[in-house]
């Protein structure tokens, strides 16, 4: 008797985790904390998403109501990586001032830079973004940079010391999906720091497309916060990012112009 | 008691003279571990709140983390 049972197939090689500025992240999904109905709902969506890093903003404390709910009472900075942003800053000086406060509040130097221009489209002002990146790097910050999907500027940001390049997929909060996959791919091919699509994702397939292009991660806020069921959408995004990453690593089949049967043509009765 | 006036989060506010940042945060019922303070555009290091005396005309900003994208 011969034992024809083969040994179990070798497991696919494990994917190396996402590392940003020396920090290893357990998830390639990063989520924002704006626009939720409550911090309590935000915390539940975060748990469902599996994300380890969240973006946060710095704002004045409401002194007339010291008992208002606080983000840190719902999401523990000891458990999650807080990534302070510069939302609302229009110059490098504004960004540096905001992030100095964030560094003092949190005690860490990993930050998200966004220097916007026109409120209508919230497109980044890239000349000012590049200048602000340079200023922040010189102050010792680890800077993840929200940027346009311009491969030339992406290269300049990396040269200035950005620790992650974060091109938009579509305008912030638009949910339009990845509008320019060609540029995203060009940025990925040229970068030696992580490339994370930041903004534009509307639903799970958009996140999967970003990951299939070879992005190292996806950052989103509105797609989860403004879904009818944010907790469920957070879970969908977790699966989409995992699926997209696996598909990228697996390598998709070539596209063909005509059909190709899946069942053998020989042996037909 | 002698009083001073500061700009606190953009609004004029009378305070008793001689208050430190620690005293101010206590008055405002704010947990110093959950905020950051800027005084006249300079970061106030958290470890020095007890030594930083607030002066008349100071511009103070007290900020914290809120939800954002």
Fold topology:
The complex is a heterodimer of chains A (about 270) and B (about 70).
Chain A: E1 18-20, E2 23-25, E3 29-31, H1 39-49, E4 53-60, H2 71-74, E5 81-84, H3 92-106, E6 110-113, H4 126-138, E7 142-147, H5 151-159, E8 164-167, H6 181-190, E9 196-198, H7 204-212, E10 217-220, H8 222-225, H9 230-250
Parallel strand pairs in A: 3-4, 3-10, 4-5, 6-7, 7-8, 9-10
Antiparallel strand pairs in A: 1-2
Helix pairs in contact in A: 1-9, 3-4, 5-6, 7-9
Chain B: E1 3-8, E2 11-16, H1 21-27, E3 36-39, E4 42-44, E5 59-67
Parallel strand pairs in B: 1-5
Antiparallel strand pairs in B: 1-2, 3-4, 3-5
Identify the notable features of this structure and list them briefly.
heterodimer; A: alpha/beta; three-stranded parallel β-sheet; B: 69 residues; mainly beta; Ubiquitin-like (UB roll); five-stranded mixed β-sheet; globular
């Amino acid at each position: 008797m011969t034992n024809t049972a083969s040994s179990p197939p070798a497991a696919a090689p494990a994917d190396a985790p996402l590392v940003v500025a020396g920090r290893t992240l357990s998830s390639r999904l990063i989520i924002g904390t704006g626009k939720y109905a409550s911090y309590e709902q935000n915390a539940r969506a975060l748990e469902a998403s599996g994300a380890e890093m969240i973006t946060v903003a710095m704002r004045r404390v409401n002194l007339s109501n010291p008992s208002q709910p606080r983000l840190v009472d719902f999401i523990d900075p000891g458990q999650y990586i807080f990534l302070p942003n510069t939302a609302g800053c229009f110059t490098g000086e504004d960004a540096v001032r905001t992030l100095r406060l964030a560094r003092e509040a949190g005690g860490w130097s990993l930050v998200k830079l966004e220097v916007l221009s026109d409120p209508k489209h919230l497109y980044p002002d890239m000349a000012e973004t590049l200048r602000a990146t340079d200023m922040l790097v010189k102050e010792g910050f680890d800077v993840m940079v929200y940027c346009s999907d311009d491969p030339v500027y992406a290269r300049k940001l990396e040269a200035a010391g950005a620790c992650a390049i974060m091109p938009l997929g579509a305008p912030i909060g638009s949910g339009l999906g990845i509008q320019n996959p060609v540029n995203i791919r060009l940025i990925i091919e040229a970068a030696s720091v992580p490339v994370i699509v930041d903004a534009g994702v509307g639903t799970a397939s958009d996140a999967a497309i970003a990951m299939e292009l070879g992005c190292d991660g996806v950052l989103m806020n509105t797609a989860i916060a403004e879904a009818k069921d944010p907790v469920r959408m957070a879970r969908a995004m977790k699966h989409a990012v995992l699926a997209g990453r696996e598909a990228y690593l697996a390598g998709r089949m070539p596209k063909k112009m005509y059909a190709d049967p899946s069942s053998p043509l020989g042996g037909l009765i | 008691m002698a009083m001073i006036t500061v700009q606190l989060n953009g609004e004029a506010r009378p305070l008793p003279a001689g208050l430190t940042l620690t005293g101010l945060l206590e008055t405002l019922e704010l947990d110093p571990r959950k905020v950051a303070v800027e005084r006249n555009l300079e970061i106030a290091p958290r470890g020095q709140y007890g030594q930083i005396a607030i002066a008349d005309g100071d511009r103070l900003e007290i900020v914290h983390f809120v939800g954002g994208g």
